[in-house]
Amino acid sequence: MICKKCKNEIEDDSVYCRYCGKKLLSTPKPKKLKRANGMGTITKLPGRRRKPYLVRIYVDRDGERQRITYGTYATKTEAEIALDNINIKGNVTALFKVTFGEAYRMWSETHFATLTPKGIGTYEMAWRFLRPLENTRLSDIKTQQIQEILNKAVEQGKSHSTVSKIALLASKICQWGVQNDVIDKDYAVFCSVTAKKPPSKERFSDEEIEALRKHYDATQDLRIGVVLFLCYTGLRIDEFLSLKKNDYYDGCLHGGNKTEKGKNRVIPIPDSVAMILERLLNSEGEYLYSSATGSKFNSENFRKRVYYKALESAGYTEEQIKKRNPHTCRHTFASMCAKKGVDPKALQDIIGHKQIETTLNTYTHTDTEWLKNAIKDL
Fold it and tell me: How far is CA 93 from each of CA 38, 63, 86, 90, 147, rounded to the nearest angstrom?
């Protein structure tokens, strides 16, 4: 063969001339093989889209072969990889047969490992209401079926909190299905919780706070001092009992729990309870408020032996005590801050809420006199 450029003789099967480097033979791209029947399809959707490549797969449902949408992808290569992975796993049909109950169990195996026994108990309570859907395929469940269960719970007189937890669990199960490509939408998020919200939760009034302070000054009962300390810091009971003395530095306590926003937050100490903090720091034990043995106080024992006993010694009746559980202190703190004009963002950080709406809607309260004073100078 003669090179067309340099006219030198070269081997017949040469792709490039070994003298001048000219490309002699074109190398056509190999024709891509067509996918076998039943292996899924890739379609480019019309128009301007971020993810124009649509992947459809074939699933056996009730003895029939059905083609359903699996997902959309930004590039054809991504779509091909996704489709190849589906066919390699060969478990698509099995996934689409997963029942609501199986999805709950698979979700809980992972999620329950991160929860406390109390948190697990909350989800198990919610599951008892969702159990009628246990044997229904997750891919067949729609919003109406979940909504009917929520409505039934409302008819049974369940609280807004309980119904919300049922809806939350249903959504968690559906989200598991979306993440594992069993379904393509969380239908539980479209449900509405119609149960009535509970009335505003109790808080200690300004007069009650003053009475508790006078009683503490007169008796130096540290149990009452602890109640005041909780009212002026907004700490949850478990957070307070978990704090160690070395968690106090730079004039603040550093700790917290429950949520990412609530962990390791900075909790300033008002001057009004600085002397109570000093007594706690000088007490026996590693913790800020230790048990008699110097170990961490059990929260249930704390409620019975410290908190409620303190209110009892301060003259509260049994009926009054029932209305003021330990979380009342947290409500009281947020309400006092709101009345003093504390910046809502600062209050959110001190309390440790992820959403500021939670702080404003749940933990702050108004009273008639405050409202009157707020507009008297208009």
Answer: 12, 11, 10, 8, 27
* Alpha-carbon span 130 to 134, nearest angstrom: 7
Mean pLDDT of 51-65: 73
Residues 366 and 219 both lie in one domain: yes
Of 346, 331, 317, 247, nearest to 287 by C-alpha is 247
**For residue 229, is it within any domain?**
yes
63: left (phi over 0), alpha (psi -120 to 50) or beta: left
For the stretch 260-314, pLDDT in tens is: 444 567 888 889 999 999 999 999 889 999 888 888 888 899 999 999 999 999 9
Single out the residue in 134, 158, 190 at which a domain terminates.
190
β-strands 265-268, 252-255: how paired? Answer: antiparallel
Q: Containing H/E element for 267?
A: strand 265-268
Q: Could you tell me if 127 and 169 are in contact, meaning their C-beta atoms sit under 8 angstroms apart? A: yes
CA atoms within 13 A on the CB side of 114: 6
Domain that holds residue 280: 206-375
- Domain annotation covers residue 196: no
In-domain check, residue 35: no
User: Would you say residue 285 lies in a domain?
Assistant: yes
| DSSP H or E segment with residue 8 | none
